[in-house]
Specification:
about 280 residues; alpha/beta; eight-stranded mixed beta sheet; 8 strands; globular
Amino acid sequence: MSERIAAFTRDGLTFDVRDAGPIDGVPVVLLHGFPQDSRSWDRLAPLLHRRGFRTLAPDLRGASPGARPRSRWAYRSSQLTADVVALIEQAGAGPVHLVGHDWGAAAAWSTAAARPDLVRTLTTLSVPHPAAFVRAVLTSSQVLKSWYMLAFQVPVLPELLLSRGGIRRQLIATGMSPDDATRDAAPMREKARARGGLNWYRGMAFTTPGRASANVRVPTLHVWSDGDTAIGPVGAALTPRYVDAPYKFEVLEGVSHWIPDEAPERLDALLGDHLVAHSQ
């Protein structure tokens, strides 16, 4: 019999987890992005529970109070992947359906590539395969959309701006509702929390090229929304070349970057087909 978990540990760090839904359901691991936490799945998770799935939504490195190392080196891709692997193994949940949004999608891509034995299916929201994203930056207007990634490399100043609440206006400008923007901006007033989120961007420089370009070999669904101000369509168009398994691409029209918050019912419908087909 499976047991609920409220947290998992790795390398001296403790990560909070929201474990819900039918305890014996096939597990779905939900990985949030920046500047969010596990609450970003609050509208989708109950829909998955109705389908009989159990959901495990961790607060990732930088978001969990017990897992906020200061060094940007601690946020390199290999560490983010190892965190997800530790969650799956300590929950005794594998193989799982792995779903990630924004930075959570990047972690999901790398986990599925490194440990396909732990992943039934992969679903990525907004962010394409890492190698496809790099190619998009080099060959399209994606470099202009990603200006903030460079700005976040500056020490101290981004933390200061986030801690003063300036991010709320920016989130609303990208299509997030005012209430959700208040929810996600409030934790950033704590400088350690802001630094933890920013370090996901600052750790990019330490990603091993081979790891970033590794192909995925599990059934994959990639969902992009045409109202996304941060991620353009080119990366999505390039992603199929990095998936050596059944692959499906869906576009949510009229939806912003914040897919789980803004379009949970539409996302649930897509996931229903994808997850059920590979739950045996």
